[in-house]
Amino acid sequence: MLKNPSSKYQRFNPVSLPNRRWPSQTITKAPIWCSVDLRDGNQALAVPMNVSQKLDMFDALVKCGFKEIEVGFPSASNTEFAFNRRLIEEKRIPDDVTIQCLVQAREDLIEKTVESLIGAKNVVIHMYNSTSPAQRKYVFGKSKEEIIAVAIKGAQMIKDRLHRLTTGGTHVTLQYSPESFSATEVEFAKEISEAVMDVWQPTPQHKMILNLPDTVEVCMPNVYADQIEWICTNLKNRESLIISLHTHNDRGTGTAATELGLLAGADRVEGTLFGNGERTGNLDIVQVAMNLYMHGIDPQLDFSDMSSLIHMYERTTGMTVPPRQPYAGELVFTAFSGSHQDAIKKGLSGYEEHKTIWDVPYLTIDPNDIGREYHEVIRVNSQSGKGGVAYLLESEFGIELPKDMQREFGPIANDIVDKLGREVSGAELKDMFWKEYIQRETPYALHHFHADGVDGVFTCRCSLVIQGKERGITGTGNGPIAAFADALIKDAGAPSFEVTTYREQSLSSGTEASALAFIQIKTSGGKAVWGAGVDTNIELASIKAVLSAVNRASN
User: Fold this and answer.
1) Mind listing the pLDDT tens digit for each residue in 69-99?
2) Which fold has domain 31-294?
3) What is the DSSP pairing of strand 444-454 with strand 68-72?
4) Domain 440-554 class?
């Protein structure tokens, strides 16, 4: 890092707003919510959702109570287009739910988007173009006037095609985003937004959505609030607009920026479940909604079955909800401190006795309201869950088990502890883990391994001890792990399998640092099995982890 950051980075210029009103405002009702999980969240996934997964998530979002859902970018791919058509043609969209589609200000993309929406009842067409100085200068090489011309042309092209939807009974709302709004001069954001309004001609009876994205969070939340209030105060025909917020989390303050933006006059919020999104993520809508709930405001969203929602999210996106994620994380209603446990117990007893306003120390809401329970996990015994097992392994030995591996090892450890009939220490848990994963050497034990690659093709040569006899095996693949898997299946007679998950971590520092690798395999029969390996060489640690998983799958 630089000793003098100002030589490379500059302070963000605040907005001149001497008579700002938002600091004295309060939020008294829920905003209009729009989920962008199926578009903004989906584009941030290493493996985007397929149509089946998107349908699964769409149904879950409807069940939660979302009335506006951005379903995709139908001009971007056949999958996105096909998803729209299935939603419409199979009549999967409730009458009170509006679907939203994103499109750039380009004629071919607009044409495809309109085509994808034919037959829907309620739609939002969301057009955007970038407006910040950096985007104008480096990405587009256009002046302010040229950027405005792009927006005007795009708005007109959409307007010229609206009859294709409205003649069939579709109610259309138009949305415009000056993308990178928070990094754009507010005067220019106002100018380009009003230019689009002049084309679309919104009225108080048929409003336009003006979405003001914090596309990359570049300023403190109070500055974003100033930007929102400035726009709300200075923009013409405010009564014909729905002002929408779309915050990201680059500075870690996306929730704060949204809440202050609502104080500043915004009407609507776009975000995703659990903050899925590019870089550090989008706004976590669950957080803002539950923050309203804990202040006694009906969020107009239902998260009463949080666990099922998390399972759906992890199943469809391949992402995981961190254990400390507000409201949703596995450990957020868990107390490890004895003094905290004592205070919570006394608070719960008081609430059960009087049933008045919730005022339990350390618990901002009643976990039961979202289908959860309060847990205390300081020690591990037969009653402890995988969270306690994982907590001790991580806190005492730095072993950070992947979440799916916690689900596998937790019950194994609990069965052993249950037979012991007593509390166990962290060292005993580590010993259980080592015996279950690290020390698995039957039916295959590694004696020697070597791999090298040429033009992306790796060949491994290794020897295993199988039933007391050493045997040499060879294999090829696009990496050392793939080559080893090929050798195991082809030469060692191991059951067919594929590697589905790989993670690694360091266990200690210095020249003798150990690497711990975690590998999950899936057998031809569909069984998922974890393995783990330790070595000072990370490549060998991963090879041992593969062998661990294969040995466990074979027993």
Assistant:
1) 999 999 988 889 999 999 999 999 999 999 9
2) TIM Barrel (3.20.20)
3) unpaired
4) alpha beta
